[in-house]
TrEMBL record:
Pfam families: GDPD. One of its GO terms (biological process) is lipid metabolic process. Gene3D superfamilies: Phosphatidylinositol (PI) phosphodiesterase (3.20.20.190). GO terms for molecular function: phosphoric diester hydrolase activity. Residues 19-240 form the GP-PDE domain. It comes from Lactobacillus helveticus (Lactobacillus suntoryeus). This is Glycerophosphodiester phosphodiesterase.
Amino acid sequence: MKKLITIIFLAMFPFTCGFMNIAHRGDNEQGKYAEHSFAAYDRAVCAQVDYLELDLQESSDHVLVVSHDDNLSRVFGVDEAIEKNNFKKLTNYRNQSGESIHSLEEVFQRYQNNPQVKFMLEPKGNGEDAKRIVELINKYHLQKRILFESFSSAALKKLARLVPKIPRTQLAGSYKATGHSQDFAASFYTADAANYLHDKNKKYMLWGVNSNKQMHKFLNPDKGVTGLLTDFPVRLAKILQENNHFRIYYQPVTFPTENLAANLKLNNGHQVKADQVKLVNNRLWYHVQPNMWLNEQNLAHHDSLALRAQVGLVKVDQATPVWTDLSFKKSAGKTLRAHSHWNYFAVAKYHGKRVYNLGGNQWIK
């Protein structure tokens, strides 16, 4: 019996020791917190995730910024293309967390002195910004804290040439064609992919796994999944703590205090420097000098009428024009037909009425 238990443990060991909790755009909880905001990142850091997943874009003056979209409309409500504006102008706008867009360098600076914080970076397009990304990684000596990801084989090939020792993950496509990457990630699960990647000693990750039920399902070592990219990494961290397979590695205790270097703006307009953050009862607390803890309610808040990320389905009863942002002044050049249904990704108030973002710079009212 003892031998059998040992064999079972060794079979489970790669999964129990190496399962990755990856914060997809931070702990944004599908819109409760602004994606790619420091609020979302700090929550994920407090949960001790394995990686913060960062989408990268580049401003007109070649500053790398963290944003999934190449336009500010969905998250900031303004129709401004990132590549056509300099970084200073881009920082004039605020998301639902009251934050401006952040540069990759600002993110690195915030967590540079916390070696537990690692970054999963997705270059834009075919890796046109790869060289600048590598320069920034080298500047902050983060080579051992980076994992690359990309849908583009050209980008992965370029990164493999520039920094061969930094691991790479192919997003989607064929799991059998991961030539320039060590790992593979997809939005859906197949046993064939799990078996193939296991035989090739490659990690198999899934994104879009957000429900408790799904998390428990893919934590089962029999599934062969080695990591999840989730909008709810705090939720996943708690499940990892409670899961029998992982209990010996994740102690069921309160999330510990984490180091950071942050400039915080308070409700009264004053700025303070924080050197630590912790998550208590699902609320962020920041340590500032002289030896004081402030909770997130002490920070400057967003406008209650500002847009909020939210996913759903909306029906339009009549022919409805599409606009590029919340000013509703510039047409997107299309009209939705009457009695049609559309997925939306953000909501806001306009003259007291609810308006919807249909993805990118597309708004209807």
